[in-house]
Amino acid sequence: MPPDAPPISVLVVDIVGTDQGGGPGSPGPDAARRTAADDAVNRARRQIRLLGGTLDAPGTHAAVGVFGAPVPRVDAAERAVRAALRVAEAVEDLEEEAPGGIAVRAAVRTGAYALADDHDPDGAERLLPSAAVEAAGALHPDGGPGVVVDEATHEATGSLFEYQAVPPAGGQPRTWLARAARGRFGVDLELRPPAPFTGREHEIALLSDIYARVLLEGAPHLVTIVGQAGIGKSRLLAEFWNHLDARPELVYWRQGRCLGGGAGAALWALGEIVKGQSSILESDDAATAAEKLEVAVRNFLDEPERDAVRRRLEPLIGLLPDSPDPVPASENHAAWRRFLEAIAATHPMVLVFEDLHLADSGTLAFVTHLAEEVRGVPILIVATARLELFERDRTWGGAIGNATTITLTPMSGRDIRTLVGSLGGPGDTTPGGLALLEACGGNPLFVEAYLGLMSDLGADPASPGIRPPETLHALMAARVAALDPDHRALLGDAAVVGKVFWPDALAAMGNRSARGVEEGLGELARRELIRPARRSSVEGQQEFAFWHLLLRDAAYESMPSSVRPERHEALVGWAEQLAGDRVADHAELLAHHSLQATLTGSEQAAERARRFLRLAGDRAASLDPARAAALYERAAALHPDGSDEHGALADAAARAAAAGPEP
Ligand SMILES: Nc1ncnc2c1ncn2[C@@H]1O[C@H](COP(=O)(O)OP(=O)(O)OP(=O)(O)O)[C@@H](O)[C@H]1O
Ligand SMILES: [Mg+2]
Fold this sequence. Notes:
Blueprint: E1 8-17, H1 31-50, E2 54-56, E3 63-67, H2 76-97, E4 102-111, H3 130-137, E5 146-149, H4 151-157, E6 161-165, E7 176-181, H5 201-217, E8 221-226, H6 233-245, E9 252-257, H7 268-278, H8 286-300, H9 305-313, H10 329-344, E10 349-354, H11 361-373, E11 379-385, H12 388-392, E12 403-407, H13 413-422, H14 431-440, H15 444-457, H16 472-481, H17 485-497, E13 500-501, H18 503-510, H19 514-526, E14 530-532, E15 544-546, H20 549-557, H21 564-579, H22 587-597, H23 603-621, H24 625-637, H25 644-659
Parallel strand pairs: 4-5, 8-11, 8-12, 9-10, 10-11
Antiparallel strand pairs: 1-3, 1-4, 2-3, 5-7, 6-7, 13-15, 14-15
The structure holds adenosine-5'-triphosphate (ATP) and magnesium ion.
């Protein structure tokens, strides 16, 4: 092997039966499995090519991909592992669509291989010597499914993927099981959509065009997608993500949600982005979170700026110094931007801020700062917002040169008909179908929710006697009302937690058994009111999300206002224990729940509200001093005038107010 040749990574894919061995070539138990295996091989080959790999002669394997040859690549190992994980995922999807009892066994080996002599670039007989391919194939000692990598691959990509060391077997080379890419996507992206994407070709083309320009110019651009609730903003994003996923370059897609309804916290969306980039889970303790952040920062930044940037990122993930001093926005903005720029210098980046109309003013200021100040790297910033954003900021985006607003108008009659059809709804020649077409106002969420309601009620949506509700709001309320009381109460508790929730919380809040919660959630998922997320932000807990935020709102509103405070109080206990030593990260949220709970007159709730408001002020001091001042003031108001606590909090408020916002 030539010692100075750039490393090449070889990916070997085998398709195995989950119950017994057998690849595409071996005699499977039936034709169905063979078809599934053929499909799987095609998917594997496609993913390898998409990630820039070259397909090599597969020999006895299902597919072999070579990364870093014939064209050398610095990120060959990363591409090979990403391809392997995507192959595994593509085959999992296939299994879900049409179970064939198959799974993927893949191995990545990195080395300085000599290219095979008999390689002819046009005839493409064989690129790598077969010994190199066999060495990679042999990394799987027990033949089970999964993606394993060798030591060189692990060394090159250890910070990019979550790995688990495979216990060493005598004489075998060391290997690691690759679990997933570090970092998570946004919640709505990971959910399976109910209907195929319909229409919106122009919007996808526009987004793709802007993205291409960002790449070409190596400069930022801000796109704001605006439109009424349910019109398809998040879905457009998800489709755009699919579109990018099919491109050859690796893109870092990082997404954060702005939380509203008092449940928001300063810079929460940016915190989600930083946590996503660093693979930090809500359930991680402070030491684990700090370590993960350290790795993420080390990946992209060198001394001397590394430490300074890390210190400014820490409050975003709930790590606070003992006595936080207010930090002016300019200092934070520069450090946060540096982190993002350093990442985007390695791969193009798409930064998504979902539901910007709910954002705190610190987030709005930072998004503007990014769009205006990022230099020399490709960052596409995409925000979604309902029209209320312009009530808060009439000129949003207007003063920024490199900004575009995409307004989503109602879907055309033709597209809505297609959508109704693909959801199995009534044709527009039936009275019910015609009424739906008129009532929905081009809103796809209306169509989905209405057909869901008809199915809940066991009603025929085509029949003449049925009149759709007048508004989306009324429609959502009707869906909640159609539930039996137990399921409605369960959904109500979930709504108290938020758009995203975990079964443990519901069990704790209602003294329910885990089994009961599981059954209830199963029924709610079957009715398409909630859906499980692919990956959870809480270790060991399946995460669920409402199908739509409006449904969460309807479920919350369905609870009599007299019982809401006690539900909030029940939640705080669970959430505080989950937050552990990173409680500061959730302090503003916990303060919100505690304040709601004080309506029961509970002294415990009042004590919590004071404590969490103060802690939320401490967190915000490091992120957005103006917000910190407001939080400290609210905390002060809960202490008697003239008390020591009142005085200390009033002082803290004054100090924070002096630090920001800047002129
Ligand atoms: N073009 C489309 N084709 C098919 N289904 C769509 C389309 N656009 C939206 N939908 C479906 O309609 C529902 C609502 O869309 P989405 O969640 O994107 O709305 P939204 O604009 O983000 O609303 P909100 O402001 O409440 O966040 C989703 O289930 C989505 O899958
Ligand atoms: Mg949305």
